[in-house]
């Protein structure tokens, strides 16, 4: 049945085309890769927007315009072979639909459209047509519905975030609004109208919800001292500025959160000035200051209230900055940090944050000049770990953009929209620039590298990988010819980086990730991707999609490597960083112990212990390849019931990212459900592993342990938690804990819960020193999960055997916890197994699998149903009494030989669909065999 309206047709055609283009982008053919990448990025904006448009007359016209452009994209360029569409009398296609024959065929068979796009993307004669088509398609990205609509409309960037799981957020319009707001309100008006305000924008802190987008900043306070030659004493005000989205409600009044109490005015009254608020904490101590912005809508609607408002002060600060210390530039950090302390992991984490930030801010006034190591700063910070350990120093996951904000010049309205870092005084300019003045001959000067902001990113990332500023190579004999007598020229840094890539082959000796080395190489040598042959100039709109493609690969790689919290850089010396005031030496961070005492079990404990580090990256890389196949397709997003997992453990730490991704939290220890806690980090690590296996699941943290060891009432709390699981219809329960004694109440709750959900528990970590603990010992109702190493071999932590026919084991050795320590334990194998079970349940609920699963989907969340599936993955890996699970054995044989998948070589649409069908058949066969 064909679509019955133009809007429905546009939705289906654009979604189908997005799949086709995505498959083409997975190939590495440089002939058509660039154009397909541009189309993919544009559809990335268009598809989710059209899914939400109401089917009204105005949007039907817009849908027809979009269909006309998509038809041009898919129409074969050979008139002798026209597309003949099928027709259905009495349908919409009998009228306007006949104008789009290529799209009609696309819905039935993508082969013709695929070949047409390849031809259109690769022919030189189509270059003008390609540019015209791209420009027209971009017009469909940013249109917003009529003001008559009563819905709350997100900005374009937020639509992107919702459209693709794992894509880095853009916040393009919000970034522009933040800049204009600061330029208008956030400057000093006391005694010196043009005095600038120093600030640091937190590049990793932007967050959003349905009502607002919030940015984190730190402002340098103003003591209003005009002593000549004196710099202000460093004192930072931690600040959040929320940009409220315009929401139209009954009566036409703006909504979207509590409104502010005091407006920040432009008058000179002290108590309404911006400076008053950012200096206020000197009297009351460090606190978090909240501002909000209304009236300058990101969309088309206008709020009744306009301006910047102060919301509140908050004494309970989520981040503990050393507010009295100066910021440290990346330049000074590279000069000072030791090579051992500035580890490869820290370099990679910092590179990911900076690359993503450059993409986000690329077209904004914040980046009027290229960012360099002098633009990026850091501030000392204190953090508390789950072990109540105090860490202090510079954290590379908190890079800051150092800016200076000045009052607008009265003579120019445009000046009010520019940050002071865009202004350049004539007295600071080089006298040699007179050579190019109008009084003498005019020469056309063109830099060797035509994308200065892209080059600056590449140089900065190269410096991070080197662990030192590029200037340190000026006197190196290999590069001194680029800067004779150590005099740097405009292309000196570029030429040195170019030599490092082409001659020194730096990536052969440094363990730099493929996506990261690819990003650096293409930033330094842009001709391959950014500026293909015959392209002489590019706009920001041309550059950003390419940069997004590189950044998204880096994000994907970083996610696959399980990024964890990094420990701080401990700087040995005092760093002035352009401040005249002395800075105290940072306190050396305490170190976590390398080993925990191997205490004898008392009543019970959580199941993990620290071991020597050993990589398990290959196991996780293969697992993530399987997850890529099992993930919900785009058309299934948010359309099916999510799997619910309960984690009975030590809770979740509020300062870790896992706390933001759980669906619910209940504290059976303290009874304070509104205050998240995890005193050990064990529960937080379990949740991290579960989310890594199944990020789409609804995870509930149920805190039954206060510490690693159980208290007298812990078994009773476990029984209460199971009752909660029954009441709230959980699908999977993860119990990474064990008790040495049987308990009647716990037993009865286990038996009752096992009829409704899958229960997985940790047996023991003590080998044969102890019997299998409860509740794992309740073998009729609970699936005990033993541990393997990264090579899918049994772990020495396991006891000799379990109580049942099968003794399944999955990865449990050498797992990094939230403290960045390497751990082993059946608790981690339990969490991974629970997450994997959730992933299979999630898979069974997708539109392309649920019919074939039928009632077997319900059986999958039982112990026997899950066992039937695990048997398939342990047939070839039995080690002694243990059935060691190799999850990727679910994949077809031809895909197993390609593991792990690379970001640039992911299986195409047809291959993925075939693999999903075969996996579905295997799972159903296993369930049927177990249930007879």
Q: How many structural domains?
A: 4
Q: What's the β-strand tally?
A: 28
User: What is the CATH C level class of the largest domain, in words?
Assistant: Alpha Beta
Task: Write the CATH homologous superfamily of the largest domain.
Answer: Peptidase S8/S53 domain
CATH topology of the largest domain: Rossmann fold
Q: Averaging pLDDT over every residue, what do you get?
A: 74
Global outline: globular
Q: Ends: how far apart?
A: 39 Å
Q: Main β-sheet: number of strands, strand sense, barrel status?
A: 10 strands, mixed
- What is the count of helical runs? 27
Radius of gyration of CA atoms, rounded to a whole number: 30 Å
Helix/sheet category: alpha/beta
Helical residue percent band: 25-40%
The CATH level-2 architecture of the largest domain is identified as 3-Layer(aba) Sandwich
Low-confidence parts: 83-94, 143-168, 224-231, 246-272, 296-305, 410-446, 508-512, 572-603, 609-613
User: Could you tell me the strand content as a percent range?
Assistant: 5-15%
Domain DUF7580: 181-549
InterPro entries: DUF7580, Peptidase_S8/S53_dom, Peptidase_S8/S53_dom_sf, Peptidase_S8_Asp-AS, Peptidase_S8_subtilisin-rel
Keywords: Hydrolase, Protease, Serine protease
Domain Peptidase S8/S53: 642-842
